[in-house]
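QA checklist item 7 of 12: single-chain prediction sanity check.
[x] sequence parsed
[x] length recorded as 325
[x] structure emitted
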Amino acid sequence: MPSLSELLADARVVALPLVTRFRGIELREAMLLRGPQGWTEFSPFTEYDDAEASNWLRGAIDFGWVPTPPAIRDRIPVNATLPAVPADAVEGILARYAGTRTVKVKVAEPGQQLSDDVARVRATRAFLGPEGRIRVDANGGWNVDEAEHAAHALAGFDLEYLEQPCASVAELVELRGRLHDWQLPIAADESVRQAEDPLAVARAGAADLLVIKAQPLGGIHRALEIIAEAGLPVVVSSALETSVGISMGASLAAAIPELDFDCGLATVGLFEADVAIAPLIAADGSIPVTRVELDDEALTRFAAADVRELWWRARLERCYNSLVE
């Protein structure tokens, strides 16, 4: 465990604008730290409390101060991520992901209707053609009846899986039972990374695969332990991070023995700009497994306001103290 002063020595806080509103935000803040292994990222969403954010700090320390496990692969196949945009905006966004064969479509957006989701998925299928893969992510926004109804409404688009259709493990168990004959897999995300016990969803038989995010789960090494114990297929995904956090996710994906699904690590394309000299933007449907070097000009241009930097430093200190208690 590094000292607090060591963590903060080279810390930089940035605020990156998004191409389109995503997850309710238009500006993504992140704190970048430099350890002996290279740059790492601490970027829990601002609404998360310190207890949850502490896991993200553990993950940042793991990547910056602990050697990464041996890599099995040097490139990671990735999916495009489509925000809950109108159907007529789909083509313009997906055009940014040249060569990507898989799209994760955000659905169940507050203030929208199922018809909006259907139109967005329909436009995505038209863009990809019959051979493309579509997965939808509700972020726990449906109850069981709504999720079952949505599955019927989206059945004609040949979905790869439903990601976190309902919020609770019990709801996922019930929905999975209802959809059993459909052979439509259920993926768990929030039920893993925001749970006190990330393995509860696997033990309950609530999901067919897990969405794994390195930073929120406490880092690469802890994530690999969870994957081994769960015994389910996994998709490694981003928490809307800069290229620094994406490099952490890519290093995790590179170390997983079996990686059957394209990973959600192409989210740098959702930013108007990035902090890396060579941003981890998907090329021909994949990203490289590499650590990134930071662009000093970008760090200056997108530096967060002083009051926000102080907020992040105070937050890191509180989280650090909880880890060393």
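[x] summary fact logged: Residues 20 and 275 are 18 Å apart (CA to CA).
[ ] second reviewer sign-off
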